[in-house]
Amino acid sequence: MTDNCWNQIGVCGDRSCLELKTFVHCRNCPVYSTSGRNLLEREAPSGYLQEWTNLLAQKDEKIDARSDRSTVLAIVFRLGREWLALRASVFKEVTRPCIVRTLPHRSNEILLGIANIHGEIIPCISLSKFLGIESPKEAVQVNRETRKIDSYSKNIKSLISIETKQYERTIVLEKESKIWMFQVDEVSQTYRCCQDEIQELTVTTHNLTNSYIKGIFNLKDRKVSYLNDDLLFDALDRKLF
Amino acid sequence: MLMLIFYVGKERYALDCSHVIEVIPMVSLRRVPQAPDCVAGVLNYRMTMLPVLDLSQLICGSPSRCTLSTRIAIVEYRDVARTLYCLGIIAEGMTEALTLSESQCVHQGMQLENAPYLGKTIVDDRGTIQCISLENLLPFRDRVELLPLEVKRVE
């Protein structure tokens, strides 16, 4: 094989290379990638060592800022209009919406029933009812107004139902072998936030919902309520069993 | 598991990526007087002084060539007492990481007293790769002792 076979018999040449049948393009061929890697076998140019020595001797502000302050990894999700977040380590799974079967004489507006997740029977709750957040349907109304979908489509209802259905997810939480699941309208992302980014609530705004909220942080243009998972699990345990 | 592949001579060696903090280019190091040959020197790594070992020197007795593919892996590990240690490792041809399954790892059927850092062997389609066990990388504990990470921080 010549040094630059890709220019002669490969994709940049006359394509007569027999290996092309197997690899389709030269970039998939080991000869090509080995030649690429061999470029790194050159001597380091002058000044290279010194430049990197200087660069690495400096304190990395970005890494430092993150590592000096303690951070939490949170998963951000939406219930109706509210954006909420929970510590990522209590998440067992985020999955597609599933069928919830009611429990006779036990189901109520908070405990919806049980569901089968990978063969495991898990109690399903309505987090929005539990936290006293408006139900998703009302929220869709609000969404429709704010997003002004009306003007774009005549068939609003079907559009909204597709839109909300697409993002609906089931979240399974697990902590100290206690497992709960609930449905949310959207799971948006994981976010690593510093402890001091989470602003505490003022005492005057206390009500039922707020007591489960540890604080609020800003994520782009949203305010996200960071839930206290200890309290949430405790309360669920006390109230429902 | 993800393994960082590098070369010592013509042979391939591997380090478990879970120990690797960062792979940085070769830099100039400050030599330490009286240190064994395999200690290439100390590195100012973001205001923390780290000892740097040259694996070529340690394994086959000749220093790593200074090419663009010769790099320093900043690694950390905990010993039995859970103390955190951090050091730099120089090796040639550090350009690749491979995802390998645990089942590809086999014991090589012997343990050398003067090279306890040689761990399991991985077999893949290009041949065999020797894993390096970080905990046993310093065979001369009586001559060089690593200090826990916190001690070396420059404020």
From TrEMBL, chain A:
One GO CC term, this protein: cytosol
Origin: domain of life: Bacteria
Residue intervals of the CheW-like domain: 71-238
InterPro entries linked: CheW, CheW-like_dom_sf, CheW-lke_dom
GO biological process, one term: chemotaxis
Protein name per the record: Chemotaxis protein CheW
Lineage, uppermost ranks: Bacteria, Bacillati, Cyanobacteriota, Cyanophyceae, Oscillatoriophycideae
